[in-house]
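As described in the Methods, two query proteins were run sequentially through the folding procedure within a single session, without resetting any intermediate state between them. The first query and its resulting structure tokens are shown here.
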Amino acid sequence: IPGEPYTLQTNVYVRGSGDGRIVGREMRFHLWFDPTAAYHTYAILWNPDAITFFVDDVPVRRYERRAELTFPDRPMWMYGSIWDASDWATDDGRHRADYRYQPFVARLDRFVVAGCSVSAPPACRPVPASPAGAGLTAQQYAAMRWAQREHMVYYYCNDFRRDHSLTPEC
């Protein structure tokens, strides 16, 4: 919608796809900038202790391992897509995608994938989230609190329409 913020959706699936009881753990944010005006950096850092989502080096979400049942049990895989999110991204479907503006295009620049595979030798160490090690620095936590307080528009644990028996971390 012209003049309205763009929405970034983050999601974590514990059991992957094709398992029947797939439960997403979504968080959505209105971006604090126009992502079409210039390039921005989006990153996902997946370590054994947490999955952290960054926008321009600001951590917007950290999904920590609290128990094996609530943390992904399969190796990470990724894909990119452009899809019609009219059902939720535009006031719960009040404003549908306008296909007169197609083709919709995304450009990736300096795309980097690095890390340790599941079968990597013990010498392979995951990349830390910060210079402090596995966790975030105090400055990073403050930036994440700001992003969540000022820009988060959906959090699955606060959605009363969901069955929270499938998300025990809530």
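Immediately afterward, the second query was submitted; its sequence and tokens are:
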Amino acid sequence: LEHAYGEVQALNGVSLDIFPGEFVAIVGENGSGKTTLIKHLIGLLRPSGGTVLVDGKDAGVAPVSDLAHSVGLVFQNPDHMFFADTVAEEIMFGIRNLGIPEPDMVLKKVLDATGLTHSRDLYPRWLSRGERQKLAIACVLAMRPKVIILDEPTTGLDGREAREVMEILKHLQQEGRSIVMVTHSRQIAEECTDRIITIDSGRIQSDIRREG
């Protein structure tokens, strides 16, 4: 995979496979190419060279709406995602937009999975930072993607909130989803993920699968 912003080569010959049920951390310094890479997986960027396949779909040309059935992105700042008046309405937007069957059942399941059942009628911006991150995950989870991508999901969270978010992600992995997480924290990557991909200057410097 190649990607250039004008004269700046952000990704330079990145090649990798991510398998079903893996929990992968992508680590690197600011400007290393981490966020550029994950944006290709959901069609927000198109390759300057190379091919990106997500669940059999060519992410270089597939409409973002088609890719949303296979892959979902939780942005670093969850507040950028919210616009509805309640937690439940926020989650239901994506469910209805993709025409997912049994919407009420899906809503109940994702509220339970993210620990937000008792917050369903609250205004999203009244939630704590950790709860807002859980809501962002719930909104993506409700669309039933096989792959969930998170950009710095523990930024701004205290230790307890970060652990709760990581526990949710581990549970989703155990259900068979692939989790791809961009993080600056190598400690979180080492404690929570199966595989750590280190990117520097647009190239993969190491790709380590952890045993156990």
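The mean pLDDT is 93. We note this only descriptively and draw no conclusion about the first query from it.
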